[in-house]
Amino acid sequence: MITRPKPEEYNPYYAKYVGMVPDDSPLLVLNRLKESSYRLFNELSDDKAHFAYADGKWTVKEVLGHIIDAERTFGYRLFSFSRDYAELPSFDQNVYVSNGNFNSRTIQNLASEFRTTRESNIYLIESLTDEQLDRKGVASGNEVTVRALIYMLIGHELHHLSVLNERYFS
Q1: Residues 28-50: pLDDT tens digits?
Q2: Distance in angstroms (rounded) separating the CA atoms of residues 81 and 136
Q3: What are 104-110's contacts with CB under 8 Å, separation 24+?
Q4: Distance of alpha carbon 89 from alpha carbon 109, whole angstroms
Q5: Tell me, what's the pLDDT at 92?
Q6: Contact present, 98 and 86 (Cβ < 8 Å)
Q7: What is the pLDDT of residues 96-151, one digit of tens each?
Q8: Mutual orientation of helices 107-127 and 60-83 as an angle, nearest 10°?
Q9: Percent of the residues in the chain that have a pLDDT greater than 90, as a whole number
């Protein structure tokens, strides 16, 4: 069973993400979000997918692209730290998004990529032992457990879905 991480298992910056995760099983939440987020994005029109709520802000496609980038990054960190202690660099989300060419793709293609990437991470997380969940590594200069990364992954998506609902879809 994947229990909620203790505050000392992650950088305090991520407390808001960890705190957003419901008390259900993280695997249940990941599976639910995989399907609900896929449906949300897959059903958007091209006009809605190209919308940005202000100049200089990401479009809906770019937000989804960022969620995919983070899904891959958290997944790699989970994989690495569950196998052995490692120190991994941070990533500049703005550089990644600007180089991601997300606006040139269909929202349906991005939604499918999200679902596939999430599915891969779910398989990885399902395979982890209790010992592996407790393992640590360094990401962006901060020590973090594998368990905390799972909660951060979920909370990160929930945060961006909240922003989308408040600023893009209202």
Answers
A1: 999 999 999 999 999 999 999 99
A2: 6
A3: 105/61, 106/46, 106/49, 107/41, 107/42, 107/44, 107/46, 107/49, 107/60, 107/61, 107/64, 108/41, 108/42, 110/41, 110/61, 110/64, 110/65, 110/68
A4: 28
A5: 96
A6: no
A7: 999 999 999 999 999 999 999 999 999 999 999 999 999 999 999 999 999 999 99
A8: 20
A9: 99
Distance CA 166, CA 170 (A): 6
Is residue 144 within 8 A of residue 11, CB to CB? The reply is: yes
CATH number, span 36-168: 1.20.120.450
**Hunting for tokens 């202000």 — which residue is that?**
54
pTM: 0.97
Domain ranges of the chain: 36-168
The token duo for 42 is: 């897959």
